Each structure stands twice: as C-alpha cells, then as structure tokens.
Amino acid sequence: MNLKTNSAYSRRNFIGTTATALAGISIIPSRAVAGLGHTPPSDKLNIAGIGIGGKGATNLRNMPGQNIVALCDVDWDYANHVFETYPKAKKWKDFRKMLEKQKDIDAVMIATPDHTHALPAAAAMELGKHVYLQKPLTHSVWESRYLTEVAKRTGVVTQMGNEGHSNDEVYEVTEVVHSGCLGDIKEAHVWTNRPIWRQGMPKPLKEVKVPKTLDWDLFIGPAAMRPYNPEYHPWIWRGWWDFGTGALGDMGCHLLDVPNYALQLGAPIAFQASSSLVNTESAPVSAKVSYLFPARKNLPYCALPELELTWYDGGLMPSRPYDLPVDAPMNPGGGFMFVGSKATLIAEAYGSKWKVYKNGQEIVPETKVNIDRIPDDPQGGGRHEMHFVNCCKNGGKPASRFEYSGPFNEMVVMGNLAVRMQSLQKTLLWDSENMKVTNISPDEKLVTTKLSQFSSDVVTYKVESESRSRVEWNAQEMCKEWIKHNYQNGWSL
C-alpha cells in the first residue's frame, strides 16, 4: 500500500489508530525512567532521527550517550553513512510507519526539507514524543502557529535547531541592549551572503530516472508532484519555493535570532520587499525585506520604541553609518547591526564578535542586567541539542522551545510572502492574530515571471522575450495559499 497517496492514511486517521496506545508517554527523571521499559542503562533517551543524511547526522552526533533506536530517511543511499554509524537502529523510509509500529521512541530529531517539517513534528507531539526540529521551524506561517499550539497542548519538550541560540553571546548582546547602553533602537539591519546554492531558476526540462534508493513520492510529500531531478535532491531543494524557503529561511533563524530575542520584537504590523527577478518556481538571487514592529513594553533600563528591521541577502548589505570607524568590521558573510540613539552595535551570527561604537570609537559598555546562560554539556555533545535532551529527561524548558521559536519563525517565513507579493507595489499590513494581510482587495492581480524550462545537458540561446513570460494570479488567493498551504497527495494537518 502506498501510504503517502492513500488519504485513508492521513495524519488524523494515523493518530486515531495509535493515540490510545501511545498518548501520555512522557520522559521523567532518570531515577524513574526504567518504568518506560528502556534497555539498560535506563537514563538514556530513546531517539529517532527523521531526515538524517545531511544536517540530521550532525544533530544526532551532538546527542552523545543516548539510544538512537530508529533512523528514517527517504533516500537510503544518502543516509547510509548514518545507518553505518548506528547499526542497531531500525531503518525506515516513512515516518508514519515508524511512529505507528516502533513503540520505544521517546523523542524525535527532524531534519527533512522545509516543506516536510510540520507533518512529522505534529504527529510525534500528538503521540507524546519530544521534538527537536531543524530550522526554519516550518515552511509557512500557519504551520508555525499550528506547531506552537500543539506543543502547548501536549506539553512535550521542543527545540528548534537554531543551535547558536544557546551561545553565551546571545545573552551578552541582550544584556547590552536591556541595560540601555545603545539608547533607543529604532533601526536594525541583518544581512547574509547566502544563497550559496542556485536560485532564480526555472524548472529543469529533462526528466531523470529516480535513484533506486530514493522514494520520490515521500520526498514530494504534501507538495505538487513533479518529475525527479538532481536539481531538487539531495541539497538544492532549499532554493525551490515548493520545498524550501530560500536564503531567508535558511539563515534568518540564525541571523535574526538575536534581534528578535534582544529587542523582544513579537509580530510585525507591516512588511514589504524588493528583490532581483521573482519567478514562479524558485526564490530570487537577492532580496531586501523590511519589517515594521510596533513599540513594545519598556524595560527597566531600556525603551523599546517602534522599530524598522531590514533583511538583506544575496550579497546585499546595509549602508555603513557615517560615524563608524573605518576599521569597524561588517562581515559580508553575515551579521546584524543595531543603530541606537546613543551607540551602534555590530555583530555576526548569534552575536559573535560583537562590538559597540560611539562617537566614532569602539567602547566597552557597562551593563546593568544579568541573563542566565544555557549550561554547558558535561558529556561533550552539542550544547543546544543536549540542553534539549537533558530537559526531556529532567524537566525544564529548552532555549528555543516552540513557545519562542514558533512566533519567531512566523516572522522569518513571512518575509518570503513579502518577496512573492512585491508586484503589488505596496506595504503589506499584517493582522497577526488572524494571520492575514488586510490591505489586498479581492480583485487585485499578482504578476509573476515564468521562466522557460532548461535542459541541463543542452545549452540554448534565446532572446529575453522568449525566455520568460508573464503570469497573473489573484493576489488575495495566492496570499492565503502561501500563508497556509493546501496540502496535496492525501497529506493533512
């Protein structure tokens, strides 16, 4: 039976047939964990990996000393090096079969392509299993909201895989901001040199035979079916709208994390974008997205006024403040800058190498607040991953739990909505409570470019007018679709 395309095997039916047996499972302190029927030693967490060939392999390696009991990947050739690392783990291709049939799983680590993040995460949480989910948390705004609500309802331990959120520098920069050292911050800038993969591409023209080790139907999942091509898998999926979230989704959860955390941003009230050519299939080569955030509640030493945050990718950079010293670094690879009324702070991802400048000189700010750090892992694993593991075993709340990372990810992927809607030539007004752009009329048209398909083994030369065409969509309908996808092929949440 093809479980992916059989609507009778939807998530709701799957949950209904297994929830009675598995609902209510939780991880309790190690002194009592033997009651779950674990194999000795009893204080180990039983972990299943879903999507393990790439980043998932690193996440599992950063959870040392645990029982890796199950490994699931749609491409067993790509994942073979992980199968060899954990030879005792059961092997699966379909996460639904794994969750239904394997009863000894306490937690799942998910590192699939973006478009299939929400499905296994929601199913696992409904079964009482803790979830470590790679960034970006989801492919759409609605999926982020949904996972946040499921995590709250089920009470499981969760963590988004923006690993740097556990770094000390995140909290150092936050202490500088909250101490009022920069004054009122009304302007923030964040940039990356990504993508380093191909973007701005049309669909490949040539059909390629699906490798024997790959289940292409399972890779496609809830997206529209298309023929296999190595331009999509195993890695370049990130640049295609149906599978990935482009440079913003890839690096936004890293580079926007400290601005979001330190400035307590919450949801924007408006956003807009400009970019290189937008086409129907893949994210543009470069883009600039602007978010407007309302004033937030003031802190004891720091006001939080209305703020505009601007994102740049594809090598675009913000202008340097004129009063910066000539040797003040703004790493073109990626970083962020807070422009305050008293001083300016510049840093790289997660606040690394942060520096503060005032009146043309670097200064050492005096902080007035202290924020607790994430503890180091005594077992030598990844700080972020092992904080998740230890919270699963002993209680506690991971740093990037869905309570934090769900709303944060809504803002990140919302930027792609702005990129895709930019032909409307307007600032988009955002109603966060209802997840709706409020200023698009029912009859407005969205104009997008469709590029001619290309063949990877035949080079053709066409004049510009023949290589692209104009596509018109109903703007309101497409906006709704990109906020909340209509899943295909029998998948549902």
From TrEMBL:
PROSITE patterns: TAT. Residues 47-161 form the Gfo/Idh/MocA-like oxidoreductase N-terminal domain. GO terms for molecular function: nucleotide binding. It comes from the Bacteria. Residues 169-264 form the Gfo/Idh/MocA-like oxidoreductase bacterial type C-terminal domain. This is Predicted dehydrogenase. It comes from Mariniphaga anaerophila.
